[in-house]
Amino acid sequence: MLRAIIQARLDVAQMPKPRKPPSRPDASDAPERIAKVIARAGLASRRQAEAWIAAGRVAVNGKVLASPALNVTARDQVTVDGKPLPMRERTRLFRYHKPRGLLTTSRDERGRPIIFDALPRSLPRLVAVGRLDLNSEGLLLLTNDGGLARVLELPETGWLRRYRVRAHGRVDPAALERLRHGITIAGIAYGPIEATLDREQGANVWLTMGLREGKNREVRNVLGHLGLGVNRLIRVSFGPFQLGDLGRGAVEEVKTSTLREQLGERLARLAGCDFEAPLRAATSEDRELRDPRKHRPSPSPGRASPSPPSPPPASGRGSGKRERGRRPRDRTRARPSSE
Questions:
Q1: What domain range includes position 245?
Q2: Rounded Cα–Cα distance for residues 85 and 42 (Å)
């Protein structure tokens, strides 16, 4: 018996040991452009991050940068205004019903009101996906992930942006139909546009328009070329996300499961989304670093604030199967007061 036990132990000792799988480099050690890293942290878009670098606000390993042409890894110490980048959080997306009278920007040299002045301070630092003009209203997507914002803005992504438009004048439905083939105005080529005449109302017409590029003032420029003067512009959807009955000035987060499903694997991979990172409450230091108002001029004394506009008519569209439900309360705090 003893001999059998000894032999069994010898057999086990002589068995080939399992081979360890080859080590893979940590994805966090892969070099990335500095502006992309700042965007991933949810502080700004890549374009804004490049502007911060040009302004001397960004340093790597104690050295202030003069150019965004630098790759960094997780081992590098990146600071903005002397403060380290906040820990990366889970990719999040919010639906915001932008009112008229607010600029879609993080700062304005003339001190005009911006959308970030109207958002609840409890939210993380957010960047806008695209923009709506000062006098445009409706659905604006906001995210804490600059990489996601960049991907969703690209025409190649192919997400349809749909608008309800009120314009002064009359238009031939045949002219609207021709927009499906695109149009060139003043040397600018606009891609295919879906445009339908909904109804005539006095001296105005109501149209529904859908486009995938979203060039600067595209709807206004195209309709102006057709002899129409836009006097109201409401974005009612952006890709699969709908304005629905979201109250004017209200903001509502899209569930992580819904966001993951609507993006799909390809877009999530291109954007570098992280759906597994933890959610954490913003600290006072984070809020100070993420506050766009810290780096823009204050409004001129005595500057009159525009009165809030009346709410738009109901679009008749829900906010998607997963977005329907009880009307969300308007969480925007009252404050004085770009398609």
A1: 93-253
A2: 9
Q: Please list the alpha-helical segments (H only) found in 15-143.
A: 34-40, 46-54, 115-118
- The pTM of this model reads 0.70
Q: Which of 133, 145, 245, 286 is catalytic?
A: 133
CA–CA separation, 194 vs 247, rounded Å? 26
- The pLDDT tens digits of the residues spanning 20-54 come to 333 333 445 678 889 888 877 777 777 888 999 99
Report how far residue 235's alpha carbon sits from residue 136's, in angstroms, rounded to the nearest whole number.
8
Categorize the per-residue pLDDT at 312 as very low, low, confident or very high, splitting at 50, 70 and 90: very low
Radius of gyration of the chain from Cα atoms?
25
Cα gap 155→191, rounded to integer Å: 10
Euclidean distance between CA atoms 72 and 78, whole angstroms: 9
Tell me if 98 is assigned to some domain. yes
Helix (H) or strand (E) holding 149: helix 146-153
Beta-bridge partner residues of 165: 207, 233
Number of Cβ within 10 Å of residue 160's Cβ equals 12
- How far apart are the C-alpha atoms of 182 and 308, rounded to whole Å? 35
Does residue 133 carry a catalytic annotation?
Answer: yes
Phi, psi of 54 (to 5 degrees): -60, -30
Are 100 and 248 in the same domain? yes
109 and 46 assigned to the same domain: no
- Taking the CA of residue 114 as centre, how many other CA atoms within 13 Å lie in the half-sphere pointing to its CB? 21
Question: Where is the domain boundary, 253, 281, 305?
Answer: 253
Residue 46 CA to residue 154 CA, distance in Å, equals 13
Report the distance separating Cα 42 and Cα 282, nearest Å.
12
Distance, in Å, from the CA atom of 245 to the CA atom of 318, rounded to the nearest integer, reads 7
CB atoms within 10 A of CB 210: 15
Q: In Å, how far are 193, 211, 217, 226 from 175, measured between CA atoms? A: 11, 16, 19, 8
Residues 100 and 214 in one domain: yes
Q: Residue 174 and residue 180: Cα distance in Å, rounded?
A: 11
Strand partners, 94: 142, 253
